[in-house]
Amino acid sequence: MVQVDGPVTVNEHVEVEVVPHRPAWLHALTQLTEQINTGKVYDRDLPALAAALGDVRSALNRRPVWHRNTPA
């Protein structure tokens, strides 16, 4: 029997959820807008996106500071 000591490569896929923070949200939403405008988002995904964006708008409307800083 031959034993070799050395590095062993293990390939394992680990899913990591990356949540944007602060300015990264603006970048992510800008990219989403561009993808929708250029047809890179499937039509079948649009209703779910619209619902999620509606939830974002509702969340914004629940923030008092948003109402004070938003033009009428």
Q: Would you count the extended β strands for me? A: 0
Radius of gyration: 22 Å
| Proportion of helical residues | 40-55%
Give start-end ranges of low-pLDDT stretches: none
**Percent of sequence in beta strands:** under 5%
Describe the main β-sheet briefly: none
Distance between the termini: 80 Å
Principal-axis shape = elongated
- Count of helical segments? 3
Category by helix and strand content: mainly alpha
Order of helices and strands: HHH
Integer average pLDDT: 87
Description:
The chain is mainly α and 72 residues long. It has a domain at 28-64. It contains 3 helices and no strands. The protein has helices at 23-37, 46-61, 64-69. It is elongated, with a radius of gyration of 22 Å. The N and C termini lie far apart (80 Å). The relative contact order is 0.06.
Summary tags:
72 residues; mainly alpha; elongated
Secondary structure blueprint with pairings:
Layout: H1 23-37, H2 46-61, H3 64-69
Summarize the structure.
The protein is mostly helical and 72 residues long. It is built from 3 helices and no strands.
